[in-house]
Fold each of these.
Amino acid sequence: MLSQLALLPVLLPLIGAPACAVLRRPTAAWAFASTVAVLAFVAAAALLQATARQGVIHYAFGGWAAPWGIEYRIDLLNAFVLLLVSGIAAVVLVASRASVWHDIAENRRTLFYVACLLCLAGWLGIAATGDAFNLFVFLEISSLATYALVACGRDRQALVAAFNYLVMGTIGATFILIGIGFIYMLTGTLNMADLAQRLPGLGESRTVFAAYAFIVVGVCLKLALFPLHLWLPGAYTQAPAIVTAYVAATATKVALYVLIRFSFSVFHLESSRLALSLEAVFISLGVVAVFAGSLVAVFASNLKRALAWSSIAQIGYMAVGVGIGTVAGVQASLIHLFNHALMKGALFLALAAIAMRVGGNELQALRGIGRRMPLTSAAIVVAGISLIGVPGTAGFISKWYLVTAALAREQWLLALLIVAGSLLTAVYIWRFVETAWLDQNPAQPATPPQEAPPLLLAGTLLLALANIYFGLDTRLPVGTAAGAAAGLLGDSAAGLLGHPPAPLPGAGAP
Amino acid sequence: MNGAGLLFASLLLGPATVAGIVLLRHHPNLREGLTLAAGTALLAINLRILSALNAGTPPSWQSADLLPGLGLELAVEPLGMLFALIASSLWLVTTVYAIGYLRGHGETHQSRFYSFFALSITCVMGIAFAGNLLTLFLFYELLSLATWPLVVHAGTDRARHGGRVYLGVLLGTSILFFLPAIILTWATAESLTFTPGGVFGPSTPPALLAALLVLFVFGVGKAAMMPFHRWLPAAMVAPTPVSALLHAVAVVKAGVFTLVKIGVYIFGLDQLSGVASRELLLYLAGFSLLAASIVAMRQDNLKARLAYSTVSQLAYISLGILLAVPSGITGSGLHIAMHAFGKITLFFCAGAIMVAAHKTQVSELRGLGRQMPFTMGAFLLASLSIAGLPPTGGTWSKWYLLLGTLDAGALLLAGALIVSTLLNLVYLTLIPVRAFWPGGAEPAPAGKLQEAPLACCIAIGVTTAACLALFLFPQPLYALVSRIPGAGG
Amino acid sequence: MDVLSYFNYWVVVVLMMLGFFIVIARANLVKKLIGLNIFQTSVFILYISTGKVAGGAAPILTEGVTLYSNPLPHVLILTAIVVGIATTSVGLALVIRIHAAYGSVNQNDILQQDQQC
C-alpha cells in the first residue's frame, strides 16, 4: 500500500493531463487541474510523513525489481521536493483562474491547463524517480510543456523567448543524455542507487569525470546558473503572469534537486578528486550570479524582469551551498530552495494580480499601487523582506544557515559576500516600495482601491504569510533538509576535501 | 516561564492599536483618543512588569526552537526595564505633543503616522525585553523598517533621499556587520542568551573577540558611532514628533542599549576589559564625541544641529560601555535616561518653534524669547541637562561618565568629555540665551506672545519638569541602573 | 589503426560539433532547429553504437545463438527519439507563429523589430 503511494503524486497529473483535454468548458478544466494538483499535494504530504517515519519507500514498475526495472525511490529529499513542488503548483493553479482568463484566449484555456498538468507531472516525476534515464524523460516532458506555456505570453516577444528557451533547454537536456550514456556504458546500470554503489569502484576514471561534467553543464543550463542563465530573464518576463509564478517557484528548484542528487548521491562529489575544482566553480559562479543578478535587477525598469534577475541571484546562493559541499552547506542550499519557492511564488502571483489591474509590471505603471491594491502590495513587501533576509521571515533562516555553513569552513570572505548580496536585494525591493507608496500616478490621480480577484489574492497572501510562518516555525524545512542532507552525504561525511566538518551547533540535527 | 502574559501584552498592544487606528481612520478624535489610551495602557503594563521585577519574579518566555537549539526569548532585566519605561512614558507624552503638532501643521496621512508610530514602539518593547541576541536582532531590524514610513512621511524628494540614507545605513550595517557577528558568536559560544558575565568561555581566541567587538560596535548602526552616523541627520526630514521620540529616544537609544546589553551580557565586563580592540574603539568614540560637537556648531538648521548633538551624546554612552568599569556602565545607563528627557524636550521646542513661528534655522531665532518665552525657557533648561550642569538630571550621568574615565585611567578621554561639555554650552545653550538677550546690534523683532498649541506646551512642560525632577530625585533610576550586573552599588 | 577502431565515436563527435555549430552560428530559426536535430542525433548514435556487442546477433531469442547485442540502448533511444520529435514539433510550431508575428524567421530581423518598438 505504501509503495503505491510513491506512485500517486506523479500518476495523478500524468493521467489527469489527457483527461483534462477532453473537458470542454475552461472552468471545468481549471477546477479539474486544481483538484489534481491539490490531491498530488496531499499524496506528497502523506509520502513525506511516511518517509520521515520509516525511511526509504520503493516502488518497482511492472514488478521488475531494481536495478533491472524502473524504480521509484522516495527518500526524505525526494519527498521534500515533491511536497514543495506540488504545494506551490496547487496554490498557483487554484489562484490562477482570473489571471488565465485575462491573459489567455478562450479557446486555448483548456489546453493551457493540460500543459500545466503535464509540466507538473514532469517535475514530480523527476523528483520521484530512481532511474537516471527516466529522469531525463520527465525532464523533457516538463520542459516541453514549459516552452508551450511560455509561448502563451501576450506579447509576440514571448514566442522568441520560448524559442530561445527551447534551444538552450534542449542542448542542456542532450548534455544530460550524453552524461547518462557515459555512466551507463561504464556500469551497465541506470538505477541511481545502483550507480552510486558501482561508480566508486571505477576509481578516478576520466570517463566518470566527463560524464559528470556533461551532466553538470546540462543541469546548470536548466537551473540557469550564471553564466548559463541567458534564457531565463526573457522567458520569465514574457511568459503569461501566472506561468511565471508557476515555473519560477518550481522548475529551477527541481533542477537544483537533480544537481544535488547527481553530485552527492550518484557521483559522491564529496569524496572525489574533482571536489577541489568544482567547489571553486560552484562557489565563484554562485557569488558572481548573486552580484550580477542583483545588479541587473537594481537597474531593471520592469519589476517582473527585476525579479527574474533576482531569481538568477538566488540560484547563485543555492549553488554556493552546493559548492560548500558539507552537510551544512547542502542543508542550507535545500532550505533556501524551499524558502525561495515561497518568496518567488508570492511575488510573481502578486505581479500577476497587478498585471491584471494595471496592464503590466513596468515600475512606471506601478506608481501609487500601494493605495490601489494595498493587500497585494503588502504581500510584495512581506515576500520582499523575506528575500532580503530580515529576521522573522523565511529568508533569514536561509541566510543564517548559509553563513553558518561558510563560517564552519572558515570561508570568511564568502560569508561576507553572502550577506552583502542581500543589501542589493534591499535596493530593488525598496525601489518598488517607494514607487508604490510615495509616487503618485499622474494618469489616475485618485483611483479607488481595486484589489486583486479573491482567489488570486488569497493565494498571494497565503504564500506571503507562509514566508513569515516558516521564518518562525522552521521545523519542516530545516528538519527535513537536515535529514535529507545527512542522508546524501552520510552522517559522518567529511567535507569536500576530507576536512572533518567543524562541530557546528545546528547542523545535522534531525 | 512566568508572567509571560504581561510581556505579550506589551508586545501585542501596538498591533492591536494599529487595527483600531485603521478602523477609526475617519474619526480623528476617536483615533487619537485610542492612541492616548494605548500609551497609558502600555505605561501601566510596564509598571506592572517593574513591580514583578522588584518582587524578584521577572517575567520571561521562551519560544520553540527557531534554529536548532536557538529560539526567541523574552526576559526582563533592570536595563531593559529602564529602557522600556523611558520609551513608553515618552510615547505617551509624544502622542500628546503629536496631536497638537500634526493638527497645527496640517499634516496628511495622520492614520499612517499613528499606526507606524505604535508599531515602532512595539519594536522598542521587543528590543527592551529581548532575552537573547536573536530576539533583539529581530526587533532591531523590524524597528528600522517600521520607522522608515515615518521618516519619508512628507513624501518629497528630500524625504525620499533621507529615507534611503536612513535605511541604507541602518540595514547595511546590521546586515554586513551585526548579523555576521551574531552568527559568529553563536558558532563560537553556542549561546546567544543574555547572561550576566558573558557567554564566551575563557578559551575563546582573543583575536576573535577583538574582531567581534569591532563588528558589534559598527554593526549596531543605531548607536550612530562615526563613521556610520549619517543616517541620523538624514532622518531629520521626518515630522518633529518622529525626530523627538524616535531619533532622540527610541531608535538611537535602542542602538546604545544594544551595545550596553552586548557589553554586559554577551562579553561581560571582565572579558570586555581585556579585548584588544576595545582601546581603539574607545578613542574612536572619543573622536566621534568631539567631532560631532564641532559639526553641530556649524549647522544652522536647528534639527540638524540637534541631530549632531545626539550623535555626540550617543558616543558618550558608547564610551561609557567601552570603558568597562562599573562607574562607566552606571553612567551609560543613567545617560540613556537623562539624555532621553533632555533631547526630547529640545526637539519638542524645535517643533513648537516650527509650528508657531515657522522658523527652522538657528540664525532666525534671535530675539524669539519675547514671542515664545515658555518654549525658550524649556529649551534653556534642557540644553543644560544635555551639557550636564545643575539643576538638571544630566548632571548625574555626566558625573558618572567622568568618574568612569578617571577610574579607567583615561585622562585624555576625561579631557574630551570636558571639552565637549563646553562645546555643548556653546552650540545649544547659546540659542535660548540669544533668544532672550538678542544683543544690541539688531533691533529685536517686535513679536507678541505666540506659543505653540496647548498640547505641545503640555508635553514640553512635562519633559522639562522631568529633567529638573531627575536632578533632585535620581534615586529610582539609580536603583534600577545599579542592579545591572557589573554596574555595582 | 587505433584511431579507426573508435570510428563510431569520431562520427558522433563530428556530427555533434556540426550540429552545435549550426545552432550557434545560424540566424535562421529553422536552420537552428535542424542543427539541434543533428546534435541530438549524434547522441542517439553514441548510444546505439555502444549497444553493439562484437559478434553478437540481433537480440531476438533464437535457437543456437548465445551471444546477443545489448537491446537496452535501442529501447532508450527509441524514447529519446520520441522526445526529439516532440521538441522539433514544438520548435517548428513556435517558428510558424514567429513567422506570423514578425514576418521573418531570421533572428537578426526579429531582434531589430523588437528593438524598434
Note: The radius of gyration of chain B is 21 Å.
Amino acid sequence: MKLIAVSAGLSTPSSTRLLADRLVESARGELAALGHTVPAEVIELRELAHDIANHLVTGFPPSRLAAAIDAVTEADGLIVVTPVFTASYSGLLKSFFDLIDPDALTGKPVLVAATGGTARHSLVLEHALRPLFAYLRATVVPTAVYAASEDWGSGGDEYTDGLPARIRRAGGELAALMAARPARAEPDDDVTALERQLADLRFD
Amino acid sequence: MQFGIFTVGDVTPDPTTGRTPSEHERIKAMIAIALKAEEVGLDVFATGEHHNPPFVPSSPTTMLGHIAARTEKLILSTSTTLITTNDPVKIAEDYAMLQHLADGRVDLMLGRGNTGPVYPWFGQDIRQGINLAKENYALLRRLWREDIVDWEGTFRTPLQAFTSTPRPLDGVPPFVWHGSIRSPEIAEQAAFYGDGFFHNNIFWPADHTRRMVQLYRRRYAHHGHGRPEDAIVGLGGQVFMRKNSQDAVREFRPYFDNAPVYGHGPSLEEFTEQTPLTVGSPQQVIERTLTFRESVGDYQRQLFLMDHAGLPLKTVLEQLDILGEEVVPVLRKEFADGRPADVPNAPTHTARGTAAATTRGATAA
C-alpha cells in the first residue's frame, strides 16, 4: 500500500504542507495500528507549477509531472490539502487535477483538507472539494479537515473538536477505508488497456 | 523509405517583423514550397485540410491538382483528409480524379480533424465522430473497389447501383494512411484494413509514439495482414536548421516563443527535449531523426513540418534546400543500412499496381 498527499500550499514553509504532514502522520499511525506499514509521500504542487502550466498548453506532461500524476493515480489512499483562494480550492490544485484522467481516481479513498485565514471559509471543503472528488468518483472520507490560523493554537469549542482531534478522526477514517480495500491487481500496460477498449470496436 | 514535407497551411504573423501574409500569399507560398520539395529531391508533399481561419487549404485536391501539373515525381498527399465531415462519395471521386491527373502519384491520409465546429459546418454531429469515421471509410473503400455499389448506412442517403467516377487509375485505389495523434481507435482502424498508420508525433514525447505504433503493429498482425514489422508506418517531425546550431537556435527562438502552436508554454529547450522538434545543425537533425527508428522500428515514410511558426517563405525555401541536399541523402543511406530486406518499401502506385496484377494472375492461374 502507498499513501500520497498532495499539498497546494504556495509558501515555504506553508501551513497547508504542515496540515498535510499531520494528516499523513495520523493516517499512517492508524494504519500501523491495523497492522499495515505504509510508505507515504507528499507532492508539493508549488514545485510542479511550471510543469502543470506547460502540460496545459502542450497536452503532455514533462517527466517530473508525469511521475507525480502516476504516484497519485497509483496511490491506495490520497490526502489532498489546499489553501482557500477566492471562495474555493486554489487554481493550481484544480489545474493539477484537470490533468488527471477522469476515471483514474474511481473508488480511491480520499481525505480532503484546507487551510485559511479564517474559519468562515471552512465549508469550502463541502461545497468545492467534496464535489470535485465526487465527480471523479473517489470515495471521500466523512471528516474533512479545515485548519484556520487560530486552530493551530487553540482547542475545540462547544461545536467541534480541536484540530488535533479532527486530524485523528479523519486519519482514522482514511486508514479504515484503505485497509478495507482489496489489494489492487497489477496495472496493465497502456497498450493492453487500449486493446481492451478496442475489443468493442467493430468495423463494416 | 520516403521522405517529404507536410504543411498545416496556417497564416501566422512573422513575429520578427509583425507582418502577416495574405491568404493569397500563403496559398502561393504553399505551391512554391511543394515545387521546391520536388526540386530538392523529396518524395512527398502533403497538405492539411482546414475550413476555418487562420488556415487556407480548404480544397486539397484543387491545390494538389495544380501541383501535379507542375511536378513529375512528387507524391501528393494530405495531412489529413477529413473522413468524418467530407462525403465519402466526394472523397472517392476527387482523389480518383487526382490520381488520373497525377499519373498515380497520389495517396491520402485520413483523419478526424481536431476542430469541433467543423462538424455542423458540413451537416454532421461531432458526437458521432468515431462512427462517422468508421462508416464513411467503409463506404469509401467500396466505392474505389466495386464498380457498382448498393449501400445503405446511417449518415447519408442510400446508394443504389452507384458508380463513383472516374474509376481509380489502373484499378488501383489510392493508398490510405490513417493519421492520428492520440486515438487508439484510429490505430485499430488502420490495422483492421491493413492500411498505413501515420502517427503525427510532432507534439508528443517519443514514448507515446512508441506505444501507439506498437499497438498498430500488433493489431495489424492480429488482423492477419502479416507480421508486425510488415505494417506501414509514417512519422512526422519538425526542424529548423542552420550550419551552426547556435545560429539555428538564435534565429528560430522568436518564432518558437510566439507561434500559436509552440509559444507561451515550455521553453524551446524543454520542447526540443520532449518532442521531435530539432533546432540545430543538419547533423543534429540527422542524428535525431535516426533515433525515430529506435522507437518504432524500420518505417516507411518520414514527413517534416518545415513552414511552421510564421517563418517567411524565403527562409522555408532555404530550409528545404538544406533538407534536400544535406539531410535526406544521409538519412536515405543510414535508414537503408541494417534495414532487413523483408521490411516493406513505402507504398507507390506502380508497386501496388504490380502487386495487384500478380495477385490477379495467381488467381487466374
Note: The mean pLDDT of chain B is 94.
